[in-house]
Structure formats: structure tokens, C-alpha cells
Amino acid sequence: MELTWLGHATWLLKTGSHSILLDPFLDDSPTASLKSAQVAADFILVSHGHADHIADCAKIAKRTGALVISNYEICTWLAGQGVAKTLGHNLGGGSQHPFGRVQLTIAHHSSQLPDGSYGGNPSGFLLWLAAEKLRVYFACDTALFYDMKLIGSAGLDLAVLPIGDLFTMGPDDALAAVNLLHPKHVVPSHFNTWPPIAQDAQAWAERVEQETQAVPHVLKPGEKLKLE
Q1: pTM for the predicted model, two decimal places
Q2: Which listed site, 35, 103, 195, 221, has its alpha carbon 20 to 30 Å from 21?
């Protein structure tokens, strides 16, 4: 499995012969490592309706033919934007795909689409990757919640957690999340895009090493993490 941070909360996961893009925000992102026209995707996961997570979804999906997986309201909205392939879920629901299984988890956040319409319930994503037999959890935009303990109870190989504060968990709550989830590896997300969510990710990673059993990895936009 190869995971690339594309800046902000946008991730590209490659598993087997499949590419999974999460929360595409590239063209207007000040930290993106590439533009939307440069990214390939077979599947696109969208956690909620805010522009900094969905802005480039329709154009990428229409260009690549990717299947978009999100909540029902977002999938309906994207279909109205001309996206041909969508699969709407509700929280707790999952579906099987050639790469494995994806399930929508709860997230404590908000979800308004760029045109002001209702974006349904925000979510995180729990992935079971068949080729590598790995479990990966993207918390996406969320506050800390105790049910993370349940999400991690079956074992997690990797958790991707927001640390930016203000709109999501900050470093302290993200550290508490690591102790609830007990992942083998953890990566920070949703930080340093703009001054209001500026954080010292290296300092956070040092605390993870000292106070949890997880191995932290701090990536720069464009950098990759490989797990087997």
C-alpha cells in the first residue's frame, strides 16, 4: 500500500492495481503537490460537503470515470453536477469493491455543500484493503469521540487523523484519539494549509512516540508512506 499526501486533507492511496483518492481539494489549495488534471483515480471518497474537501471531485470523476463513494446527499448532488458513477451510503453502511471494503464511520463536524445546500452527515472512512490485508482509518474532519475505541477494536494498521484544531481535533485531542484507536501507524492531516490551522506536526509526532504505542509518520505534500 502506498499513501501520498497531496496537501490539506487530500490523500491518494494505491492498493494493488487501484487508486483511491480522498477529499480532492487541489486547484485552489495553497499546499497541494499537484493539480486536479494530474491525478488519476479509480475511486473517490468524499467525507463531507465543504469546499476544501469536495471542490475538485466532479471534474476528476468526469475525467477519470472514477466511482464516487460518499453519503447519499453528496452523491445525489454530484450526480446533478454530471458525475455518472456514484454510490451513496449512510453512516455505518459499507460496500465491497475490487480493492476491498469501505465503511462510513461517524464524524462530529458539519457538512454544507459549496452552493449552500445540505451535505448530509459528515463521515470518516474505514477501509479493509484486500491485496495487503490492511485496515486503514481516515478520521477526516472530526472532533474527538469515544466511539473511536470501537473503530479501533478490530485492529488498525494505519490511522490518518486531523490535528489542525479550530475546525477539527487539535494536537491534544488527536493524541487522545491515538490512545483510543491503538493503530500501528498514524499520520497527521488537515494542518498548515492556512495560518488558523498551523501546527507543529513534528512536536506532535514526538508526543505520539512518547505517549502511545503507535509509530508516527509526518509527511510533506507529495511525500509517500508505504506499508506492507
Answers
A1: 0.98
A2: 195
Cell of 69: 463513494
Residue 73 domain flag: yes
Q: Is residue 228 part of a domain?
A: no
Backbone angle region of 147, left / alpha / beta, with phi > 0 → left and psi within -120 to 50 → alpha: alpha
Angle between helix 171-181 and helix 201-211 axes, rounded to 10 deg: 40
Strand 94-97, strand 100-106: pairing: antiparallel
When divided into structural domains, the chain yields a total of 1
pLDDT tens-digit map of 97-113: 999 999 999 999 999 99
How far apart CA 87 and CA 75 sit, in angstroms, is 7
Residue 48's domain is classified under what CATH number? 3.60.15.10
pLDDT tens digits along 167-201: 999 999 999 999 999 999 999 999 999 999 999 99
Q: Which domain holds residue 42?
A: 2-219
Amino acid code (one letter) for 141:
D
Identify the bridge partners of residue 172 per DSSP, sorted by sequence position: none
> Cell 454544507 sits at which residue?
112
| Angstrom distance (rounded) from CA 100 to CA 82 | 27
